[in-house]
Amino acid sequence: MAAAEAREDSGQYVLHHLTNLKLDLRSMKIDPDATGFWVLNIDSIAFAVILGALFLFFMIRVGRKANTGVPSGFENFIEMVVEFVQGQVKDIYPHANSLVAPLGLTIFAWVLLMNFMDVVPIDWLPYIGEHAFGLHHLRIVPSTDINITFGLSLSVFVLMYIFSFKYKGVIGLGKEFLTHPFFIPSGPLVVLNVLLVPVNVILRLVEDIAKPVSLALRLFGNLFAGELIFVLIAIMAGQAFNGTVSGAALGFAGFLTQLVWAGFHMLVIPLQAFVFMILTIVYLASAAQSHGEDH
Amino acid sequence: MDLNATLLVQSFTFLVFVFFMWRLAWPPIIKAMQDRQAKIADGLAAAEKGSKSLNDAALKSEEALKVARVQAQEIIGAANKQAAQIVDQARQDAESEKARIVASGHAEVEREVTQAKDSLRKQVGELAVAGASRILKREIDTKAHADVLNELAAQV
Question: DSSP letters along A147-186, please?
């Protein structure tokens, strides 16, 4: 099916692979051409929820069975991950907080699992989806959907502000907004602070908005590019059975490229998950820390 | 590609997952890990203590062994001394017994010799009397001359 489509029209094949299974929330109909905000990418959200729930389920199960005896293999693995995340949080986050480490682990594990969907051969699940369930579009890698990555980073953004309010209060945060980084504490030029306040506010806004945007776009960009390359490689490999020698050679090359790219992705996948987690912790740490202190 | 409601659902789901992770999954795992850490620390401390007490016990037993060895040496020495004393005593006893037996033997011999001499003297006396009586026959009254004869016998 992939080969046939690739032969017919590579462009269409690519486009097909980059189209979500969309549910128009206004008409409650599945419509691949739906636009606007009130559209739900069912495939992204379903895979994301399934993967996240799976991890959460295993975590809870390990938690139930956890005791002080010798840990089993899987329990050991989970504890290793937990310890790793906790170590990172301890290094970065300044206060004692019971939320940051589980939050970091949730991000790390969830992003990792979503990213790992990228190395599932790109036509397997869409093929099953089309022939077994009649779904004409299916994107199985949630982190190649910008909505998913922005969904995560916006939550982090909200948490950043919750942390800011919690640790600094409205007054502290307002002061930081208005007087950081430029402020003249005394002297004849104190009047100039009136001019500096808007500069500070604009700088702060840019700084704060850049955080979730960069988080989301970094993950999305890496995974989307990876997915796109996999699609292109699949087009190349799709030539394998068109009966010509050059086609077979291309197919073989595609097979090799696929292996190499998947191997490379084995590095990108955990790295992106790790980066997302670390930056989240760093952002939360900076939100919880008064800027006056670290100058 | 455009932003849509997926974003909201994802945000919400994320917060729900974080909440469950925070409240349900994380605490028991961390608790188990901390407990295990404490348990291992306790175990290590106990092992250290055990090995220390083992050392102490070894030292103590060494000491006891030393004392016992000295004591045994003393006992053996005393026993040897006693044995020698007993042997000495026995030898002395045997020596004195021998002397006594020899002395009694000597006395016996002496007595028998005396006895033999006595009886010999008596017999000689009697022989002399018999001889004399044969010679003198009737002239000599045995009774009248018994005193003389006895005197003679004592003189022999």
Answer: HHHHHHHHHHHHHHHHHHHHHHHHHHHHHHHHHSS----S
> Any catalytic annotation for residue A115?
no
Q: For residue A171, is it within any domain?
A: no
| CB of A30 closer than 8 Å to CB of A88 | no
Residue A150 lies in a domain: yes
Interatomic CA distance for residues A144 and B25, integer angstroms? 28
Residue A127: inside a domain: yes
- The residue count of chain B comes to 156
Tokens 């080969």 locate to A3
> Are the Cβ atoms of B1 and A146 closer than 8 angstroms?
yes
Q: What does the CA dihedral A261, A267, A269, A273 come to, rounded to 10 degrees?
A: -160
pLDDT tens digit sequence for A21-79: 888 888 888 888 888 888 989 889 999 999 999 999 999 998 888 887 788 888 888 88
Give me the number of domains chain A comprises.
1
Determine the structural domain holding residue A10 and report its residue range.
2-166+208-288
The reported pLDDT for the residue numbered A8 is 59
Residue A174 forms part of a structural domain: no
Query: How far does CA A29 lie from the centroid of its chain?
Result: 27
As given in the structure block, the two tokens for residue A281 are: 């912790």
Work out how many CB contacts closer than 8 A connect A with B: 130
Whether residue B41 lies within 8 A of chain A, CB to CB, comes out as: no
